[in-house]
Amino acid sequence: MPGKRALVVDDSKSARVVLSRMLEKYGIEVDSADSAEAALDYLRDHRPDVIFMDHLMPGMDGLKAVREIKANPELATIPVMMYTSQEGELYAGQARASGAVGVLPKSIRPIDVTKALYQLQLLSERRDTEPSMLQPVNNGEGARQGDAPVAQPAVDPRLRGLVETMLKEQSVEMRRFIIASLDAQVHRVVAELRPKEPAEPGGEVAPVADAPAAKPWGWITATVTALIALLVVGVLYWQSQSATEQAQRAFEAVTASNDALTKAIEKWRVVSERPQAADDSQDQRALVLSVPFGEPPLAPARLEALRTLVAQLERAAIGGTVRVEVYSGSFCLSGTGEQGYTLAASATVASQCEQMGNPHDDTQGGTARPPIGFANLASTVRRRTNGVIELEMTPGPRDRLSASYPPIDQATAGQWNATAQSNNRVEISVIPR
Questions:
Q1: H/E run at residue 11
Q2: Which of 207, 303, 332, 412 matches a 20 to 30 Å C-alpha distance to 164?
Q3: DSSP code of 393?
Q4: pTM score above 0.70
Q5: In whole angstroms, what is the distance from residue 118 CA to residue 131 CA?
Q6: CA of 363: how far to CAs of 82, 90, 134, 192, in Å?
């Protein structure tokens, strides 16, 4: 919003750049300081509308700087938002006790900035008239007596034969259609081009009056129709081949996923049957599922893999907790909250990205929001196994990366997003009892 000014205080240049570019998208002018002392010097002559304060900095820390600002009557009315990697309700309480209005996480998302600006009343009133898509979840309490648990079977080995049979039937029907269409068109063209039979000898020949030459519209129309029919048949055949290839790829992906789950089950069975050792935590490797940008962590494909894993655990008589850890990559984005976000152009410098974050990251504040499908599955499994198998969803530690991000001032958006995609994942592990 024009006329508004913010002060960003952080000893990290990249953190200042990221937050400054997000604020500038809302028309807010941004000044920066690399230490708490520099910020206090700035405030002697300037009055910003809001201050974003880092916590850990050389010299004076952020909380002490907030207390000094609030102790000065001329500065006490300026709202201060902590901009830090510190998390948890305990830290949030300390920040508010020092005078801060809230905490903005360092692993920032565009939606966090929007919420903070609305909280600080630096943006106009929000209007969100879309109805909520959330539905109540039956967690098992008060379930009807006649409800039977819905078992989710594992991948059937006969799936391949079923798919092949369907594709063969489709190919036979396609051939029949092609042959019938071509035969009908050929007969029509031949009938149009066949000459008239000559008159019998000795018969009277009627005088032939001069008539205008007949225009060959009939066979031309038939030829064009035949060509169109051939084109349509070709398109249908191409679609059939494409569907066949997609079905084959889907089958191979399901088979590979099933093999991976089977190997993981066997390994967890060995771990659960042997005595506990000090290095058991190293042997129990998690099943890692990559999450493409733009998809929620537990989209139908990954939820189906989790459902298959639970079914195999039941058949193998393995009890314990199935832990789903969600890790969100921080992507270099372009766009706005109203128009949606897309990956920035690969050649863009990462420090010049319009937004930095992940639209599907719901793990801020140390909590994960399980989707409806996961909550229903967890309730069903708990009820069906009498609590022998439990499902839980939790955000993974933010410092546990699959790949380290490059320096933001030296990397392109393509390099940054490749690293973010490596870190955007779901890890499923089983903790046997």
A1: none
A2: 303
A3: E
A4: no
A5: 20
A6: 18, 17, 18, 73
The contacts of residue 237 (CB under 8 Å, 6+ apart) are: 174, 178
Instruction: Find tokens 């128009």 and name the residue.
Output: 339
Here the tokens at position 45 are: 């002559």
The residue type of 238 is W
Please name which of 164, 151, 153, 152 lies closest in space to residue 251, comparing C-alpha atoms: 164
Q: Which residues contact 101 (CB under 8 A, 6 or more apart)?
A: 79, 80, 81, 119, 120
What whole-number distance in Å separates Cα of residue 142 and Cα of residue 199? 93
Are the C-beta atoms of 284 and 271 separated by less than 8 Å?
yes
Distance of alpha carbon 323 from alpha carbon 431, whole angstroms: 7
Closest among 239, 238, 220, 233 to 183, alpha carbons compared: 233
Q: What is the pLDDT of residues 339-379, one digit of tens each?
A: 677 888 988 888 888 788 887 776 555 556 788 888 888 88
The parts of the chain modelled with pLDDT lower than 70 are 1-2, 124-163, 165, 169-170, 172-173, 175-177, 179-218, 243, 246-285, 336-339, 362-368
Separation in Å, CA 191 to CA 1, 183, 222, 229, 308:
77, 12, 10, 18, 61
**Alpha-carbon span 293 to 420, nearest angstrom:** 9
